[in-house]
Amino acid sequence: AMQRSLVLLKPDCVQRGLMGKIISRFEEKGLAIIAMKMIQVTPELSKQHYAEHVEKPFYGSLESFITSAPVVAIAVEGLEVITVIREMLGATSGLKASPGTIRGDYSGSRQMNLVHASDSEESAKRELDLYFGKEEFCAFESVA
Ligand code: CMP
Fold it and tell me: Where does this protein have coiled-coil stretches (predicted)?
């Protein structure tokens, strides 16, 4: 079925100048980018986004990282896009992700893993609402 996912290009992606390469992989796969913006994540937004991790021992470090530089929030639409993107990203840790995946090719870190993507339809809805207003989604004909 048609789905939407929230993709975040994290601070390491922006600082290393890998935004274009990673956006290209989604475009080349034929996924539709229907909204996109660069923003500075605040501690408040981080706690909302990572609500399920706030109690975890690594949360403090994750919040420092995600608020350390701007991120690019992208709404992506496509068939089964939630699973498709997670497969493209590879395992959470760049140390475990297979070569050929985005994290496998560009990340050597568990925390600085370049990209976040929603893990279910429920989290996609919740996360898209955190970053975008309904009027920000742009529909267009994809020819990919
Ligand atoms: P993400 O897919 O955005 O979801 C939660 C993030 O927390 C994850 O990517 C990593 O950036 C980070 N993370 C997950 N597990 C750990 C861990 N064990 N130690 C440090 N950071 C982690």
Answer: none
